[in-house]
Amino acid sequence: MLNSIFGTTTTEITISITNLIYVLAAAFAFGIAISLVHRKTQKNGASQSFSLTLAVLPAVVAVIILLVGSNIARAFSLAGAFSIIRFRSAPGDSKDITYVLFSMAVGLATGMGFLAYAAAITAAFGGVMLALELINFGGSKGSVRTLKISVPENLNYETEFTGVFGEFLSSSKLHRVRTTDLGSLYEAMYVVELKPTVSEKEFIDKLRCINGNLPISLISKTPTGEF
């Protein structure tokens, strides 16, 4: 067993320029297709950096597979090299992680020379993601927003907004409360779902009448951390 392992470490891998060009061209084409699908399925818009990452990632994975081949020594060397890399980026949502794994799978298939499989994976998963986004699978019928509202200290934020919330919202959940201005104000954060036909301006105007025209913000993204 040891002889077989050490015997593979000296195996030379030859990569022709023609094959390399074919693999890179296919990987970039698949990556660009995945990136376009991701942009189509992002309701709040995709960042340019993440779109570029998805476009290039299959080619990077394919090149790694080509360089490693069946050489165990190279595999351990690359594993050691990549283990010292530290990624400092904000955590993305589960959809972004799915697209990263999707791109890596396509890059793996391309690097191993299974171009037909890579094309089929790209078409199948891309079509499924577009179809699920089209039917709004798992989504809500209304618009989910983050509501931040400043409240005077003498106003009970737990009960004063109940009537307005019932008129304009399908659901609401108090996410966090904090004090501001040396404790003279409360700032309450809600995750709310607007009813399909309501006016955001009318909703905010009615809230202003209750909180004394203090600051109110209605944000299109749900909260993920501290505010």
Please give the largest β-sheet: 4 strands, antiparallel
Strand content: 15-25%
What structural category do the secondary elements indicate? Answer: alpha+beta
Radius of gyration: 26 Å
Total helices: the number is 8
Count of individual beta strands: 4
Whole-number mean pLDDT: 81
Strand order of the largest sheet: 2-3-1-4
Q: Helix-strand pattern, N to C?
A: HHHHHHEHEEHE
Approximate helicity band: 40-55%
Quaternary structure of the protein = single chain
Write the topology of this structure.
Layout: H1 2-8, H2 17-41, H3 48-68, H4 72-83, H5 94-111, H6 115-134, E1 143-152, H7 162-168, E2 169-180, E3 185-194, H8 200-211, E4 216-219
Antiparallel strand pairs: 1-3, 1-4, 2-3
Helix pairs in contact: 2-3, 2-5, 2-6, 3-5, 5-6
Relevant terms:
four-stranded antiparallel β-sheet, 227 residues, disordered N terminus, 8 helices, alpha+beta
Descriptive account of the structure:
It is a single chain. This protein has 227 residues and is of the alpha+beta class. The chain is 54% helix and 16% strand. The chain is built from eight helices and four strands. The chain has a four-stranded antiparallel beta sheet with strand order 2-3-1-4. Strand 2 and strand 3 form a beta hairpin. The chain is elongated. The N terminus is likely disordered.
A few lines on this structure:
With 227 residues, the chain is α+β, with helices and mostly antiparallel strands.
